[in-house]
Amino acid sequence: MGFELDRFDGDVDPDLKCALCHKVLEDPLTTPCGHVFCAGCVLPWVVQEGSCPARCRGRLSAKELNHVLPLKRLILKLDIKCAYAARGCGRVVKLQQLPEHLERCDFAPARCRHAGCGQVLLRRDVEAHMRDACDARPVGHCQEGCGLPLTHGEQRAGGHCCARALRAHNSALQARLSALHKALKKEALRAGKREKSLVAQLAAAQLELQMTALRYQKKFTEYSARLDSLSRCVAAPPGGKGEETKSLTLILHRDSGSLGFNIIGGRPCVDNQDGSSSEGIFVSKIVDSGPAAKDGGLQIHDRIIESSTDDARLILCTRL
């Protein structure tokens, strides 16, 4: 719903009025057909009727409504009277400053905080009323045996009935205890839901961590085995003591420009006393389903002796 016209200081442009409530637009929304309404006016209409409230009655859904920010900023700059003008406030502020003013307006309604009073006064008068005028303000304690607080009204009347005062005090305590139990039950329910959510998130995180650890462990094992094998191959050159090698001649046909294997280069071993060396080029990886993986093809650790550069590549190699 919009703002009442008589609250504004001076005349308001008709273009700033809602076509439904005929008040100054509050949080204006526009339709695709160009009509502008208060958000609180047009949304219930569109949800129920599914059409524009204007005469065009065009088909419309809530998601098609758009905020009109320039128009909203213009409205927020209008001068408006305080909502408590009828209670005596004469302030006129910018609409955008109204919420801040209402929070501290001296003419806002405020209830006396003494138990048993409940009188509504101006905010500026509450403290004085509670201190000097309220009949429910405490003035001491009963000296007749109950020891309960004695109000100004009861003192003026000559005291109170202790039995009645104790029953009322007990009822107030029971009501407060019941409210605390309800609040505690509500908080326990909320904490239980939160705990279940956190436990589920923790379990999911632990499961994901375990799966990730297993994947990395598997990769680590594979790479370690491959490195150990390559290290043994490079450290012990073909033809060494206790080793037998055989020569192979293979013809590999390229598949999409690839022969389907990777190589690794060895380094000479200058410390070998017998003059042997681990220098050479070795097969380090065979691509599945590639040319080199076919029956009778290359194997990991094969040493490449010679290779042609034709599309059908001729490869000479030795194998332990």
Automatic annotation (TrEMBL):
Ranges of residues in domain TRAF-type: 101-139
Pfam families: PDZ (PF00595), zf-C3HC4_2 (PF13923), zf-TRAF (PF02176)
Domain RING-type: from-to ranges: 18-53
Cited Gene3D superfamilies: 2.30.42.10, Zinc/RING finger domain, C3HC4 (zinc finger) (3.30.40.10)
Superkingdom classification of source: Eukaryota
Keywords: Metal-binding, Zinc, Zinc-finger
UniProt domain PDZ: residue ranges: 249-320
Transmembrane segments: none
ZnF TRAF-type: positions: 101-139
PANTHER family per UniProt: RECEPTOR-ASSOCIATED FACTOR, PUTATIVE-RELATED (PTHR10131:SF157), TNF RECEPTOR ASSOCIATED FACTOR (PTHR10131)
Name this protein carries in UniProt: E3 ubiquitin-protein ligase PDZRN3
Naturally occurring in which organism (per UniProt): Ceratotherium simum simum
Origin organism lineage: Eukaryota, Metazoa, Chordata, Craniata, Vertebrata
